[in-house]
Specification:
By secondary structure, this protein is mostly beta strands. The chain has 3 helices and 30 strands. The protein is globular, with a radius of gyration of 25 Å.
Length: about 400
Amino acid sequence: MKQPTLHSLKHLSLLMLGVCLIGWPSSTMGQLQIAEFQSENLNTLDDEQFNSEDWVEIRNMGDAKVNLEGWFLTDDPNNLGKWEFPSLEVNADDEIVIFASEKNRHTQLTIFQRSNPIKPTHTNFKLDNDGEYLALVRPDEVTIEHVYDVAPVQIGDRSYGVGSDGEIGYFSEPTPGIPNGVAGVIGPHIVDVTNVTGRPNLDEDSEMVITATVNETAHPIAKVTLFHRFDFRSESSTTMQDDGQAPDKEAGDGIYTATFGFASIFGSQVDKGGMIRWRVESEDDQGNTLRLPLFHDEDDADEYFGTVAQDPSTADSKLQIVHWFVENPNGADTRNGARGSVMFNDEFYDNILVDLHGQSTSNRGNFPQGSWDFDFNSGNRSLEGRRTTGEGCEHSYQLG
């Protein structure tokens, strides 16, 4: 098999044989509050088994001690009694931290653990990185003490909650078990951006319709913008509308809509088998912004949603196909690597790191076969594991 040529825009179709609505309280905040929580705990806090589990901090803002026995914590508005607290005391003007790990257990507290705000106590549910309901419920299993109606998308090793100034937002430096600092203000909360759209057929499809649900946070929504890119060309943008005019379906429902075409007066903007990416940015009337994907870490986060246009030349293949795009192919042939994008099993993975794998690969004179490591971002590492081409193919790929 002939070695593929690497161009400035590298797109290998590899035939492989083996291969925020901010959580504004919907009820009056009581004596206790969910002061802070984290659902993508990478390196912030370990539980008693040294696992990095989700965690929730409960703060007592009153002047009297409260025992949480019989109270409830839930992520389901239809099941307010989902998880019941054991006997845990929260001193006045103090906080405790429990783990939302799904382990559902509470061990007898040692003397040290009674004084330590971090408790070996675990709920029967985990938190959702994509944002969800979270509520602290009184023992009557009806009265909601504090609630995040729809907590926003969570960010790795960032937490979310109530700042020292009363504002709700993200914390770049989580503080489990101690008072919070000032939370970062973000723009209108974005959820449900069109992601899995199917692969467009350029012979039949002329445009892509993108929707996003956007909710007001601290300030009114000023605008919502869709940005899109073809391959590694410059971004283009268009204003998304919620006015009921086509392609938007209903005015004022919070679902913003925009389209972008695959061709312009200058001709086709994307080839068959080409990469199509997009992101959404919201802004309130105070200039606070939020984007999705969040792209909070340029070295470990997706920058765009995306897909790949159908390629008729591979439509009848019996083999699994990986579409790999990299702007700097020479960089991918080094130990430092280069960022790129991959489409595999109809799932799109953006801004992943691809670098040279193995000693033999670095010596192409003696070993012409190529091999690369594909390092996926946090949360997208289900593809980890080696996939190697079969006999007669000249490329192997180390995924993860």
